[in-house]
TrEMBL record:
This is Transcriptional regulator, GntR family. Residues 1-68 form the HTH gntR-type domain. SMART domains: FCD, HTH_GNTR. Keywords: DNA-binding, Transcription, Transcription regulation. InterPro entries: GntR_C, TF_FadR/GntR_C, Tscrpt_reg_HTH_GntR, WH-like_DNA-bd_sf, WH_DNA-bd_sf. Signal peptide: none annotated.
Length: 210
């Protein structure tokens, strides 16, 4: 891994896991020292993170970690609805019985998490469920765009299922319906439409949260 990519990964991971909080200044000297490089790779990494809308560079202040506001969160969910619907459509022709059993097992684990009210684990399994489908998508650029958007949403603490738990039971029911459609699709477009609406239902839950 080259120095720019390494610096990018280090900073991005710290933003996404909360080590760097919104508004915090990124100290270029510190990062350069940590990765054993000059400032040049770190500056390039900062530019990439600006393009990802994770950092804003301000004169006299430097590189500051951005938070995602509600408007951006909603728009990201709307975009994901389109991307995930299409990725699911592309994936179904590459899934066999074993792959379908895998997503069934994940969804059953999600139901068990609901019984224990373990919503953090539920959220992790929800991501695993969908990416177990996308792992069969032949368009990996599309999958990477989806992954980047999920990571961006992870920086918004209010985005988690723990903040609108009433959505969770409906989500696993919709997963069951999606599995049925993948097993026996009436049309590929019908699968795409359902997967897209599944994501939009999450947006509805967010907007209607108590």
């Amino acid at each position: 891994m080259n120095k720019t990519k390494y610096a990018y990964t280090v900073i991005k991971d710290r933003i996404l896991d909360g080590t760097y909080a919104p508004g915090q200044r990124i100290i270029l000297d510190q990062i350069a020292k940590e990765i054993g490089s000059s400032h040049i790779p770190v500056r390039e990494a900062i530019r990439r993170l600006e393009a990802d809308n994770l950092i804003e560079y301000r004169p006299n202040a430097g590189a500051l970690v951005l938070s995602i506001d509600e408007k951006v969160y909603k728009q990201t969910l709307e975009m994901l609805a389109v991307l995930e619907g299409y990725a699911t459509k592309l994936s179904i022709g590459h899934m066999n019985d074993e792959h379908i059993e895998e997503i069934k097992a994940i969804n059953e684990d999600m139901k068990e998490c609901l019984q224990r009210y373990d919503l953090n684990r539920f959220s992790e399994l929800n991501k695993s469920f969908h990416f177990a489908i996308y792992s069969h998508c032949p368009n990996q650029l599309l999958v990477e765009d989806i992954r980047a958007s999920w990571e961006k949403l992870d920086t918004v603490r209010s985005a988690g299922f723990a903040y609108f738990p009433m959505r969770a039971p409906y989500s696993v029911e919709e997963h069951d319906q999606l599995i049925d459609l993948i097993e026996d699709p009436p049309t590929n477009d019908a699968v795409e439409a359902f997967a897209r609406q599944h994501k939009l239902n999450t947006l509805d839950a967010y907007e209607n949260r108590a």
